[in-house]
Automatic annotation (TrEMBL):
One of its GO terms (molecular function) is protein dimerization activity. It comes from the Eukaryota. Belongs to the anoctamin family. The lineage of its organism: Eukaryota, Metazoa, Chordata, Craniata, Vertebrata. This is Anoctamin. It is a multi-pass membrane protein. PANTHER family: ANOCTAMIN, ANOCTAMIN-9. Residues 149-711 form the Anoctamin transmembrane domain. It is found in: Cell membrane; Membrane. The gene is Ano9. Pfam families: Anoct_dimer, Anoctamin. The chain crosses the membrane at residues 157-186, 237-255, 301-324, 344-363, 390-413, 523-549, 570-597.
Length: 734
């Protein structure tokens, strides 16, 4: 009994004798028997079939994938095959076994002939070690046993946790830098010259923020908001954005080195995935003919068109969020509650962020279905191609789902709304939002903070609770039944496998994309951490804290709450590396745009070095930003308001608004074009400098460590020497 181990378990409902489903099940099991599989049946509320592959299958695998020269030296040598490899081979054969009806296991599961198919969590030493030393909350700061993870879950899972651990480790440095920048911003909370001017502007009357029931307001009323804005928007933000651009590059280059070291230790550095696939095809069916690479320009054009349609839908949803913010602002300003009237814009931003999070949750499920459908249309040749195609599509959809609204806030909010007397309106009624006189960067800060906090609290809690509750309910519903005779077949009394198979069945189901979901979650987080980090310096800190828990959460799910994932061999993280490199480039562009467009850094520098008292009056005893607020405001005549705009109070005939326009015809001033040119020049300079630094960092840090290269050189030398020693005796005998 101790030696009775099973590679896979198939689960089926109890069907009527002679029914179509029962016939299809029997045909599939017969095909497995023809291939030499041992099959054991256990009956409970469901039918459980344990399958074990014959030794010959694994011997063929070892023979086909061994070095050709070593076969000649020792043709009879067979080492024990790892459990992860056994499971992977058996899974491949199960998925590719075809019945006489030309149906595979995937088709039979769709028709509910089989309900589940999974490898078993065995009570072995490695599993007990991982449960006690890895899948525990108390080990949150402990180093991960990557080698043990590999032995139990295979190389792909081990590489995911190695990457996640490395990402979290380097994220600690970015988190410290971001915290320093944020704390430095707090220290200037009360000392910013721009904030002081806003707080002292008790005589500066601003235009109403809406058409109905909105009074004129004093600029000094927004004193606290201005202080918060300049706590975020300061010189340290620019330095931090450059730092994060360099960090993203260094992280990826160091990961390439780390990955090379790890897979070299596993002897997988030059592993050929296609060769392994062909070997398993031949093991499953000796008559198998290799599938040819195919490409259809027509099909690709159709898929590209459908992808663009889906992107247009996601951008449309972002427009819907914009409309919500505009309408919510108008409604809040007309509320009977004084707090809502006074904080209408902030409340619209916060509720809009929550609504954005809800759309992310909903659209994530929709995006998955659409991406899978498009992959089916594309008809990729192998599972790896299917996974790569799915990865690109789902990441593209998720990127637009997560970032379309943020892109609007960062680069369009307050810049396409027109000006008093000629506002841009939605449906000719609601005015688009305006930026605060101290800038729009606080809106972006609030939006990112709320989304990241919700994603890292609610999403993670649900990620843990759903499989935990499902596991408990399964255990409650699936009570062991007493032994009895069903369908004329008698079950063995108290079979020792029964409890193990039932306990594994009661765990949450996994699929081919279970690990993919974890990768996607982390890559989207990486996007938040890098692309708009200039507006939210605390993003790396939140990501770092989240990842400490995420590692143990994923470990607990895999070890305790989910069925055993089918191990897969890999020597890198696949196409995710290209996705991360693309995000690194987007991070340079995004942060450059945030500083050049969203931030007030450029307008303040232009004023400081062109129009300030320090330049015009040669004053040395005053702050060079003195007078910046008045310089950034334009004057508007009340009589030029649109006819349907109701003005409840008229303090003077001239009011002010944030823009650079002439008082006569409201055309742009020379200062506007000066600032526009400076923004453009900074953007070009920043992006080219950051990309050059990225290229230098990529060149300076080699992808493959010298130790790895030396290991391969020594290994080649040793193999050649052994081959020469084997050849020499043969020549002497001849």
């Amino acid at each position: 009994q101790a030696e009775e181990k099973w590679d896979f378990v198939l689960v089926s409902n109890i069907h009527e004798v002679g029914s179509e489903k029962e016939t299809k099940r029997k045909k599939f099991l017969d095909e497995l028997s023809k291939k030499g599989f041992t099959i054991k049946k256990i009956e409970d509320k469901k039918l459980f079939y344990g399958v074990r592959a014959p030794k010959q299958i694994f011997q063929k695998y070892q023979w086909l994938l061994r070095n050709p020269d070593s076969r000649l030296q020792n043709p009879d040598a067979h080492r024990d095959i790892p459990v992860t490899t056994r499971i992977r081979i058996v899974n491949f054969i199960l998925q590719n076994t075809v019945t006489s009806d030309l149906e595979k296991l995937h088709d039979l599961r769709k028709k509910r002939v089989f309900e589940a198919a999974f490898p078993l969590h065995e009570k072995e030493e490695v599993r007990e070690f991982l449960k006690e030393r890895w899948a525990r909350w108390r080990d949150i700061f402990s180093q991960q046993p990557i080698e043990k993870i590999r032995c139990y879950f295979g190389e792909k899972v081990a590489l995911y946790f190695a990457w996640l651990g490395w990402y979290t480790y380097l994220l600690g440095f970015a988190a410290v830098a971001g915290l320093v920048v944020f704390v430095a911003g707090i220290t200037v909370f009360n000392s910013s010259q721009v904030s002081k001017e806003i707080c002292e502007a008790t005589n500066t009357t601003m235009c109403p923020l809406c058409d109905q029931k909105c009074p004129f307001w004093l600029l000094s009323d927004t004193c606290t908001y201005a202080k918060v804005t300049h706590m975020i928007d300061n010189e340290g933000t620019v330095l931090f954005a450059i730092f994060m651009a360099i960090w993203a590059t260094v992280f990826l280059e160091l990961w390439k080195r780390q990955r090379a070291t790890v897979v070299t230790d596993w002897d997988l550095y030059r592993w050929d995935e296609e060769e392994e696939e062909l070997a398993m095809e031949l093991i499953n069916n000796l008559q198998h003919e290799p599938q040819q690479y195919q490409h259809s320009y027509f099909r690709s054009a159709i898929i590209l068109l459908l992808v663009l349609v889906m992107i247009a839908v996601l951008i449309g949803i972002a427009h819907g969020l914009v409309i919500y913010r505009v309408v919510a602002t108008a409604l809040f300003t007309q509320s009977d509650l004084e707090f809502l009237r006074e904080q209408a814009n902030t409340m619209a931003v916060m509720t809009g962020a929550v609504l954005h999070y809800i759309t992310i949750v909903i659209m994530t499920k929709v995006n998955r279905r659409v991406a899978l459908y498009l992959c089916e249309l594309e008809k990729p040749r192998t599972f790896s191609q299917h996974e790569n195609s799915f990865t690109i599509k789902i990441f593209t959809f998720q990127f637009f789902t997560n970032f379309s609204s943020l892109i609007y806030i960062a680069f369009f909010l307050g810049r396409i709304n027109g000006h008093p007397g000629n506002y841009v309106r939605i449906a000719g009624r609601w005015r688009l939002e305006e930026c605060h006189p101290s800038g729009c960067i606080t809106d972006l800060f609030i939006q990112m903070a709320i989304i990241m906090l919700l994603k890292q609290t609610i999403s993670n809690v649900m990620e843990y609770l759903v499989p935990w509750i499902s596991h408990k309910l399964h255990k409650k519903w699936q009570r062991p039944k007493k032994r009895r005779v069903m369908l004329g077949e008698e079950e063995e009394a108290e079979d020792p496998c029964k409890r193990q198979w039932l306990s594994n069945y009661q765990l949450s189901e996994v699929n081919a994309f279970s690990l993919f979901d974890e990768f996607l979650e982390m890559v989207i987080q990486y996007s938040f951490t890098t692309i708009f980090v200039a507006a939210f310096p605390l993003a790396p800190l939140l990501a770092f804290c989240n990842n400490l828990f995420e590692i143990r959460l994923d470990a607990i799910k895999m070890m305790r709450l989910r069925r055993r994932i089918v191990p897969r061999k890999a020597n890198d993280i696949g196409i995710w590396l290209q996705v991360l490199e693309a995000i690194g480039i987007l991070a340079v562009i995004g942060n450059g745009l945030v500083i050049a467009i969203t931030s007030d850094f450029i307008p303040m520098q232009v004023y400081k070095y062109t129009y300030s008292p320090c330049m015009t009056e040669n004053s040395t005893g005053v702050d060079c930003l003195t007078g910046y607020i008045n310089h950034s405001l334009s004057v508007f005549r009340i009589q030029d308001f649109e006819p349907h705009t109701k003005v409840s109070e008229m303090l003077t005939h001239l009011e002010e608004y944030r823009d650079y326009r002439n008082a006569d015809d409201y055309s742009y001033t020379v200062q506007f074009w000066h600032i526009f040119a400076s923004r453009l020049a900074f953007l070009i300079l920043f992006e080219h400098a950051a990309l050059c630094v990225k290229l230098i960092a990529a060149w300076y840090v080699p992808d493959v460590p010298k130790s790895v290269k030396n290991t391969f050189r020594v290994r080649k030398h040793t193999d050649l020497r052994k081959e020469l020693r084997w050849v020499m005796p043969q020549q002497c005998q001849g």
